Each structure stands twice: as C-alpha cells, then as structure tokens.
Amino acid sequence: MGIELQNITKKFSGYTALDNISLNVASGELVALLGPSGCGKTTLLRIIAGLELPDAGKIILENKDTTNLPPREKNVGFVFQHYALFRRLTVFDNVAFGLKVLPGKERPNRKEIGDRVEHLLKLVQTDWANKRYPSQLSGGQRQRVALARALAVNPKVLLLDEPFSALDAKVRQELRRWLRKLHDEIHVTSIFVTHDQEEALELADRIVVINKGRIEQQGTPQEVYDHPKNAFVYNFLGNVNVFHGRIKNGKVTLGSHHLDAPDELKHAEEKPSQAFVRPHEIGISRIRSSESDLTGTIREVRLMGGQIGLNLACEGFDHPIDAEIPRDLYINLELAKGDTVFVSLNRVKVFTGDYVI
Amino acid sequence: MPLNAFFGVTAAWAITKFNFTGKAALKTLLDLPFAVSPVIAGLIFVLLVGSRTPFGSWLGEHGIKIIFSTPGIVIATLFVTFPFVVRELIPLMEAQGRDEEEAALTLGAKGWQIFAKITLPNISWGLLYGMILCGARSIGEFGAVSVVSGHIRGQTNTIPLHVEILYSEYNFAASFAVASILVFLALLTVTLKVALEKQFQKNSFHH
After folding, report:
1. Which residues of A touch B206 (CB under 8 A)?
2. Is the ipTM of this complex over 0.90?
C-alpha cells in the first residue's frame, strides 16, 4: 500500500478543515483530490507532506507510520501551485538542491549529482535551460523544473498542489497530458489536488471528491461521473440544469412535467427532490418525437467552440434550461434565436436529500 | 551595523516565517525607536544603567563602564537604528512568502541549510540596503549619543557631537569643516543607496 490515511482530522480556529478522513492510495496510483476551494484538499496534502500536523489520525507511507515525522524525513516530493522555485539558483541547482543537502554519507558525488540532474531535466524536457534562472522561464517550463526538483530525491510519494492552475488554458492541457504520460513511465505514487473537474477526469486513475472536509465519493473517473452518489458530486463534475420538484407515487413532478422516478426511489414517500440534467444530454428537435417532449423557445445562442450553447425557455418551467448541441446539428436544424423547438430530457438524475445548490 | 544586521535578520525571519503568540506585540515593539525621540531614548538608557542605578553600580563594581564610554554610544546607536534593517526586510520577506522554504523543507534541507541557501540569498539586496540606511543613521545620530557619551574629547566623541562642540565654541570654520565630512559621508551613502536600488530593481524584475 502506498499511502494510508486513517481518520485524519484537522481543525483551524473556528472551523473543521478535515473531518475524519480515511483514504488509501495504492502504490503507483495517480489520485486526484477534487473539491471546491476551501474544502480542505490542500490542507490534506500538506498534512501528508508534514507541512501541517493533523489534530488526530495517522499517516502511513509504505507501511511506516510517518504522522509525526518532520517533512525532511518523510521523503515526499511536493510540487507547489506557484512553483516555489529557488529564485537565486539556476535550474540545474534547483534540481540538484535536494541531493546537495543530503548529509555527507548519503550525498552522491558531484558527477553523480550532475548525471541525475541531467537525466531529470531531459525527462521533463527542459535540459536546454539548466543554466537559466527560474525568472527566465515560462510558467509551464517552471512547473516542469519544479517537478524534476521534486523527483530528484526519489520520493516515495509525489504530491502536487493545484499544479496547473496558474497556467493558461492551452499550456495547462498540454502539461496535463504530458504529466499523465510521465506518470505512466515512472509510476511514482502520486496525489494531486485540483478544483478543475476536467483535469481530474482526464488525468487521474481515481478521483476522491471532497466537500467541507469530508469525502463525498471516490472511484474511477468513469464511476464518479456516471454514478454520482449525491447531488453535490453530480453538480461538481460538470455543468448542470437543476429542477426542483416533488417525488410522489414513483413519479417525479417537475413543473407541469412528469417523469418516472429512478428504481431506488420508486417506492419513496412523497418528498421534495432535485432532478439534474447535463446540458449535453438534452435533445433538441424540430419535430415532436415523444409525448414527454417539452416545448421551448430559444432565448439565446452561444458559440462554445465545437458545441453550441442554447438557452431555452420551456413551457411549464420557471427557470430557463441550458442545452449544448453539436455544431453540425445546430447548422442542420437551422436554429436561430426565437425559434420554437422540442426538448427531450435524457438521463435525468434524481436526488432527494438536503443538499441544495 | 553588523550587530543590527544580525538582529534585524533574526527578527524579520522570526516574524515572517513563523507563527507565534505575541507576534503583533513584537512588531509594535520594533517600531518603538522610531516613535521615541532619540534624546529620550538616551535619557532612559542613562536611567537604566547610569552609575547611580542598582544595575549601573553593579556593572561599575565589575569594572564595566557603559555610560560616558564607547559601549554606551554603541548600544544607544543600536537602539535608535534598530528598525531600519527590520523594516526593510519584513515587507520583502512577506512578499516572498514561505513557499521556497517549504519546498526546501520537503526536499530534505535542515533549518540552517534553508536559511543559508534560500532565505539569506533572497533577502541579500534588501539587507544591504537596510544596512546602509542604518549605517547612515548611526554616523549622524546625535540625540541619544549626546546624552549617553558625556562628550569626552578624543575618547567618546562622535562626529556630530564634535560639530556641536566646535560650533558652540564659536569655532565656525572648524565646525563646518567637520560638518563637511558628514556631508561627504551622506553623499557617499546616498550614492551607494541609488546604486543598490538599481541593482535591487534589476533583480526583482526577473521575478
């Protein structure tokens, strides 16, 4: 087992940042801690690294209790959101730092350090920059160097705190793919923190969704995305339309619209419920294809790259509905603002419970 | 100056890189020398360690003379110029944050290694700048020193004190001659300061 977290609790004056978190990460796994800002995910990462101490609970790294060890004895690599490169040192010296500060006996000789740094810089594709200073590099290059620096000490675990959030969209995506590839090559147990659901879905082997200091759900990206346990997870993993309705006799009532309740709620007593539909799971058509189709008027058309966003006012619904359709369909149907269309809600997800968006 | 650099760095390091109770109080205390008139500082100092006080007489018995001698001047100057280095360093270190130190920590560096290899190089320009200001102030310091030194010529006289003595003896030519040394030193300091500021900016542009 790579990392075992047992009942980690951390309180800051006035609020609980982490509430009894237990989590296992297998060796070689790449896990994403996903949650809104302030949910405690960064605190958890810092606790694993030893930069903060938990109020209660245990951290076990490769079967060794490291809860109270100082950071330097934990042997973890940490990559910071804002890179935290040493500004007075060259790229080479930045990467070599972790090796140079080793006590005399364990420290490799100059040549070995040189070789290792060269190797790492090649791995992160910045070997051309070894004499430069961090300020002379772009954000993406700096983060690569920071990664090489963290890997230099052969960490048991690599921790990344929102590693791409300070980069612009294009570089972020490129670096994300590159990191996935790198992880497949070197297989170091890694945990990264993010508030970007796309990043988590694309990059991670497993996603842990955290909210208000608690784990809401964990599983593979596919599991979490397709079978969200509750309204929070569903809402956090992508854009949604929310309908507030009631559940009664196996039917969910949304405005003047009725649909079949999901199996697990078929026999539920009458209570308020929330129904969710992702914008891209809404069908738009010029012809009515089923009884349950809604009639809607296009209020707004938004260009979103490959997709077209439609804002629809539907009969019987108080709030407008957002839909996303492929560009081709939009062109074929010759849609324009003010047109009346038929709207079908596919894959409606119904949750009861007190979580309110 | 070196002493002040040492204290300044220590205090700034403690204040910006660690959290502890009484931090705000310490920060306020650091500004005290700015708030208190140097003459008063000198007087308080005389009250504390003058030969008629218990502590002063105890020191006297052990053959340590502070008031009306060089150590007195040094300590009084130290007090008056203390905030220069600290005030220069705190904003700088606060702006730089703790990230780099934390990174070094996770890479296995020990406390003193982090300080020597990361913190100190990062603040070197600010430190030098603070030291120069501090030095300029020490050369020109009059109030506290005037009270503490006792104006013993050839022994406990500083340049500004000497100017004052010559001036009150109507020895204007000599007085202005000595004063011109101070002016020269002041110009030198300002030049150094400007040169450093340029360096400083050039360095911070990189970030």
Report:
1. 87, 133, 135-136
2. no
The residue in chain A having the minimum alpha-carbon distance to the alpha carbon of residue B204 is A135
Burial code (b: 16+ CB inside 10 Å, e: under 16) for B16-31 equals bbeeeeeeeeeeeebe
Non-local (6+) Cβ contacts of B154 within 8 A are none
CB contact under 8 A, A51 and B102: yes
Q: Are A101 and B130 in contact (CB under 8 A)?
A: no
Count CB atoms within 10 A of the CB of residue A13.
4
User: pLDDT by residue (tens digit) across A207-265?
Assistant: 999 998 899 999 999 999 988 888 899 988 988 888 888 887 778 877 777 777 777 77
- pTM (two decimals): 0.78
Chain A contacts of B207, Cβ < 8 Å? 87, 135
Specify the pLDDT at position B205: 47
Q: Which tokens belong to A270?
A: 């009458």
Q: Does residue A236 contact residue A35 with C-beta atoms inside 8 Å? A: yes
A244 near A209, Cβ under 8 Å? no
Percentage of residues in chain B having pLDDT higher than 90 = 0
CB pairs under 8 A between A and B: 73
Residue B187 DSSP SS3: helix
B179: left (phi over 0), alpha (psi -120 to 50) or beta: alpha
> How confident is the model at residue A5, as a pLDDT?
92
Q: Could you tell me if A160 and A49 are in contact, meaning their C-beta atoms sit under 8 angstroms apart?
A: no
What is the Cα–Cα distance from B173 to A79, expressed in whole angstroms? 67
Q: What are phi and psi of A205, to 5 degrees?
A: -75, -35
Nearest to A158 by CA among A137, A179, A129: A179
CA-nearest residue to A74 within chain B is B106
B18 touches chain A (CB under 8 A): no
Tell me whether residues A74 and B106 touch, CB distance under 8 A. yes
The DSSP code for A238 is: S
CB neighbour burial string for A250-278, b if at least 16 within 10 angstroms, e if fewer: eebbbeebebebbeebeebeeeebbbbbb
Cβ contacts of A254 within 8 Å, gap of 6 or more = A243, A244, A245, A275, A317
Q: Please, are residues A290 and A344 in contact by the beta-carbon 8 Å criterion?
A: yes
Instruction: Report the sign of the C-alpha dihedral through residues A63, A69, A72, A76, in that order.
Output: positive
Return mean pLDDT, chain A: 88
Tokens of B202: 């050039």
Mean pLDDT on A326-343: 90
Check pLDDT > 60 for residue A97. Answer: yes
Q: Is A328 in a helix, a strand, or coil?
A: helix
Residue A257's nearest CA partner among A134, A146, A142, A343 is: A343
Type and span of the H or E element at A203: helix A197-203
